[in-house]
Amino acid sequence: ILLYVVEPMMYPSGMGEVVDLDYISLENELEENGRRTLQTIIDEQLQGTSNPGYRIRKGNAHKEIIAAASEEGCSMVIIATHGYSGFRHLMLGSVAEKVVRGSGVPVLTLPHE
């Protein structure tokens, strides 16, 4: 099962409905982009795999990955990592690290190319 998580958009409050609609539109565009990307991976790289599927979820990435693994009964999570360190890691955090720490199943991390 491939998983794509669309994280909620953060925007300044008090900007009115126009901004709200723009952010909703952007989130919908991100979701559709994720759907196309996952389908392309299935079509091009997972041919012959029995019943490959994907899920799109909205929310905090590491929490959604951990929840999906549990709900889907996955035996392992495989996740790419950018390998940030130092200040950049401190500021951006690490989804992969949070998944490793919080997952109820083994997690394989691979370098993102």
Question: How is this structure best described in words?
Answer:
This protein is an alpha/beta fold and 113 residues long. It has 4 helices and 4 strands; from the N terminus they run βαβαβααβ. It has helices at 17-45, 61-71, 86-92, 95-102, and strands at residues 2-6, 54-58, 77-81, 107-111. A two-stranded parallel sheet has the order 1-2. Strands 3-4 form a two-stranded parallel sheet. The mean pLDDT is 83.
In short:
The chain has 113 residues and is α/β, with parallel strands linked by helices. Helices cover 49% and strands 18% of the residues. The strands form two sheets. The chain has a two-stranded parallel ribbon with strand order 1-2. A two-stranded parallel sheet has the order 3-4.
List keywords for this structure.
single chain; 113 residues; alpha/beta; two-stranded parallel sheet; 4 helices; globular
In spatial order, strands of the major sheet run: 1-2
Number of strands: 4
| Biggest sheet architecture | 2 strands, parallel
Tally of DSSP helical segments:
4
Q: Output the structural class.
A: alpha/beta
